[in-house]
Amino acid sequence: MSVQSGQQIARLRETVARLHGELTRYGLVAWTAGNVSARVPGRDLMVIKPSGVDYDDLCADNMVVCDLDGIVVEGDHAPSSDTAAHAYVYRAMPEVGGVVHTHSTYATAWAARGEAIPCHLTAQADEFGGEIPIGPFALIGGDDIGKGIVSTLTGHRSPAVLMRNHGVFTIGRDARSAVKAAVMCEDVARTAHLAHALGQPVPIDPADVDALYDRYQNVYGQRAASPTTT
Ligand SMILES: [Zn+2]
Questions:
Q1: What are the residue ranges in the chain where pLDDT is below 50?
Q2: Model confidence, pTM
Q3: Distance from the alpha carbon of residue 134 to the mean position of ligand 1, in angstroms
Q4: How far, in Å, from the CA of 167 to the mean position of ligand 1?
């Protein structure tokens, strides 16, 4: 492995370890559930959380480097039990640089009902471009979860999918973008839940959803930085 590639992986180990702190900060995970991964740009590799390690103990050194078949190439720990799903997404969607998985409460309550989150909020139009879709039921192990994520999100504006009876998977051009999508998914799921519980939410004209999405994705934010920076 070249020095440059080694430094790139070292930086991604730091980034992925630190981003796990956002999952706990926003209350998206319980115990050791949930995980973040990042693709190593230009390499068929990814950096992912180790399996079963407490969030407080996650650090750059115990992140695991796997190839895109989920085989460990660097690290002392077994990788996350969701590694196969992350690897499948990276193999199938070359534009994806980060993947996140949580069982965040409100979003997963929609997943438990097998119900997509309809777009009744401008913030949802901004980030997701419409509804947050439901993916199929799939058992862990093998490629079924990965296939369900990819088949649901391919050609869809949403970077988040609610896998039925399971939880949230999000994608992004990097790991930070995927973490942001996971945070925003839970935020809109909670508000949508309350709105539905209290009455009938008012629809947004689809043309306005399009306009909101276009502005947020292409105009909003600091132009010199990532368009997902708020
Ligand atoms: Zn899960």
A1: 225-230
A2: 0.94
A3: 15
A4: 6
Encode pLDDT of 180-212 as tens digits. 999 999 999 999 999 999 999 999 999 999 999
DSSP string, 63-83: -EEEETTS-EEE-SS-B-TTH
For the chain, the farthest-separated pair of C-alpha atoms sits apart, in whole angstroms, at 59
Tokens of 189: 């799921």
Distance CA 97, CA 32 (A): 23
Q: Cβ atoms within 10 A of the Cβ of 36, count?
A: 31
Which residue in 103, 85, 86 sits closest to 186, CA to CA?
Answer: 103
pLDDT tens, 73-95? 999 999 999 999 999 999 999 99
* Ion ligand 1, residues whose Cβ is below 5 A away: 167
- Count of positions (residues) in the chain: 230
